[in-house]
Amino acid sequence: AGDDGVKVTVIGTGWVGLTTAAVFAFLGNDVIGYDVNEKLIEELRAGRVPFFEPHLEELTREGLANRRLSFTTDIGAALSTAEIIFLAVGTPPAPDGRGVEMSFVSRAATVIGENLRPGKLRVVVNKSTVPVGSNGWVDSFIRQGLAQQGDAGPVDFVVASNPEFLREGSAIADTLYPDRVVIGATDARAIEALTRLYHPILTQDFTPPSFLPRPAGRGKVPLVVVDPVTAELIKYAANAFLATKISFINEIANLCDFVGANVKDVARGIGLDHRIGEAFLNAGIGWGGSCFPKDVIALIREAEAYGYEAKLLKAAYEVNAAQRFVVIRKLQEVLKTVRGKTIGILGLAFKPNTDDLRGAPALDIIRKLGELGAIVRAYDPVAMHRCRAEVPDLPASYANDIYNLATGADALVLVTEWEEFTQANWADIARLMRTPVVIDGRNALNKKYLEGLGFVYRGVGV
Ligand code: UGA
Hints:
The chain contains 19 helices and 14 strands. It has three domains: 7-222, NAD(P)-binding Rossmann-like Domain (Rossmann fold); 235-260 and 283-322, no CATH class; 324-458, NAD(P)-binding Rossmann-like Domain (Rossmann fold). The chain is α/β, with parallel strands linked by helices. The strands form three sheets. The chain has a six-stranded parallel sheet with strand order 3-2-1-4-5-6, with helices on both faces. Strands 11-10-9-12-13-14 form a six-stranded parallel sheet. Strands 7-8 form a two-stranded parallel sheet. The protein has helices at residues 15-26, 38-45, 56-65, 75-80, 103-115, 134-148, 171-176, 188-203, 228-259, 263-271, 292-305, 311-323, 326-335, 361-371, 384-390, 402-406, 419-422, 426-432, 447-452; strands at residues 7-11, 30-34, 69-72, 84-87, 122-126, 157-161, 181-184, 223-226, 342-346, 375-379, 397-398, 411-414, 437-440, 456-458. Helix 9 crosses helix 11. It binds uridine-5'-diphosphate-glucuronic acid.
């Protein structure tokens, strides 16, 4: 492999870690992915990515083929040449639901400390989303690990923060063409090392992969250099703001339903004000996923620790928790009772282009429908396999495709706006259903067209 690239090690080759590793390898650096999960490393070595993220497998295979990218479960080997070490282990919600599970981070930091040898400077960069102040905490765990080594000689390292803003389903594009890069560090050498690593992205000076052309008009990428605590807060604040923005438009959508206004037009009408912006104003059943719920809660808890009540964030959370059940109210309006009715759920994943079921509204909607005595069937283009394995007790059976799901159904509920659903043959679907009722939880279907086909259509605020 190359000579001008940076030697990068990524600890934790899950979704964030593998994306980071594959992209930096693509940009000409020498990257080692390390994970404790031997089966995962074996898969990755064989060029198989065991989770769904567009283009990630291609990029991983390319990295393996040109030897910029390798994988190991040997921490000593992973760290021996590293200049920059990314921490990208999971920070799931804690089992008590009140905080963030930090044991993977503390364990990884300790192991790094136990295995760093004297030599050139190592910059340990935290990419996992961690509570504010974790930078210092990571530093102390690395020191504890170092102390375990006894007298290993002086080991030169600094800890920095570099939050990621990737979306599932567009992780590679978001990494190559970000809106900004945030570096949280006070040490000049750490800032210098990370700026060098990010140089091709900041200047957009690289040949885009054939499958992901550079978006038109994409210029230089702003670099935000701040102290670590501020960087950590930027990450939470960005997600909390976006989540609040969605809860806001959902509240407006509910009002639209009362007064007979159209929330899509409201969103456009306010979004064209550049101070507001049109993005993330799609009303519907609200946000799920592994990030928004966890990060909004984490920020609320963070505030609580200081005796401050984050009222706005709490409201955003509550609006969202209730919003997913709006489709059930609408079903009841149309069908009167759902008991004994066959309801087809279109989509299980929390959003399209992923098989991720964490925080997925579909699961809550299905459980509630089950409680209400409905016969629930579901179909998702990629998430069914995962759903069977991870949520075996879900009160639903599965269909092979959207037409199979429609056959004999009393109503369909669109929960995830997969293109396969928006592009389906709705005339056929109308003929297959017992009663052509569609509740569009994402406002993704064409109301006029469907009504023309004889559907009873209900969106959210449209
Ligand atoms: C989110 C952020 O968008 C990323 O910037 C961030 O890096 C990531 O969390 C993270 O912290 O790792 P993600 O959870 O992958 O990314 O998904 P989004 O595309 O942001 O969607 C989140 C949820 O909001 C989905 O359930 C989606 O259906 C919903 N949503 C989104 C709406 O209901 N309306 C919208 O207008 C946009």
